[in-house]
Prior knowledge:
The chain is of the alpha/beta class. The chain has 16 helices and twelve strands. β5, α9 and β6 form a beta-alpha-beta unit.
Amino acid sequence: MKRKAGQDRSITQNWRPATRAVRGGTARSEYGETSEAIFLTSGYAYDCAADAAARFAGDQPGMTYSRLQNPTTEMLEQRIALLEGAEAARTMASGMAAMTAALLCQLQAGDHLVGAKAAFGSCRWLTDTLLPKFGIATTVVDSRDTEAWAAAIRPETKVFFFETPTNPTLDVADIAAICAIARDHGITTVVDNAFASPALQRPLEFGADVVAYSATKMMDGQGRVLAGAVCGSERFITDTLLPFTRNTGPTLSAFNAWVVLKGLETLDLRIRRQSETALRVAAFLERRVPRLLYPGLASHPQHALAMRQMSAGGTVIALMLDGGRAQAHGLLDALRLVDISNNLGDSRSLMTHPASTTHSGLSEEVRHDMGITEGMLRLSIGLEDADDLLEDFDAALRAVGL
Ligand SMILES: *Cc1c(COP(=O)(O)O)cnc(C)c1O
């Protein structure tokens, strides 16, 4: 019994989040290993030909091929579903594989999608370029404007797609209000929850249908692997997502799944600490730069909404300098501790200039429309001592005259 506790829903659903993050999904092999095993195998052998046939017919439980199932990735899928409060979850090779699968599995030519204007660069590419190429019409709206979502609905609208807080502008969308509009119109909501992670925000509790993740970010949390996940109802995952992913193959490797399993064990601890440090750094920087956005500060235009949806302000800060790209690059170059890196959600603090990196593929007009200026910087807070970060910023700000 104990050996299977991590996979027994009647037991795991009573566990609190931190316990789910450590033990959810764990299935021990005959060796009784305490830490989850890595099953690096592409295939599975059968005792007899009849067993192989029965397994392919779905009459016998068990695995057939690692594009479809793997014991290590299955443990991660159960752990993520438990953390999210979802009936089911499936992991993908990256966050973008998760976003692409979550959208394409349910859309077809003639359908219409409404997406958020402010979004991760590649998510905007899906909306603006990929979907229209296959005959799926798209409209982008300011995700903060709940009425705009309602106004964009057409008879053929099938999906609402947004992230909150957004990358990198930290706009906050009202999940409950947008999902309620969608539900009234039979529209499926897909929420990219990479920035908050299930430790701070669980969109399903606010009425979302599908939650998609870049597990590369907070879930791994230590900048090691790319990974993604899609969470939803058992029906959505089995009937809609799986036929798409089993045949197109955006499968997560067992090794990377194991790394994320280890990352999740410390998710709660890390995100709490990083959010605490982010709040301190944001309060410090706010006094030194012309404009700063952090959902945990009262100065954020949607602070109250953010605090209704999230249990803390998160680990990412956006700051806007008046001196354009030259001053923004100058600040980056003057930092000694914080790395210049376009990744985020790492245990190391990382800072990037979105206009010349993550969002450089978009036209200047689109960037402007999203609120990404030449003087904007995005800061992802890590696990270093807050005082060391404050000292690094103090010196770097002085170097650029702030
Ligand atoms: C990083 C990120 C993605 C893409 O995830 P990958 O793992 O890099 O493919 C999608 N959405 C958001 C909000 C992200 O931050």
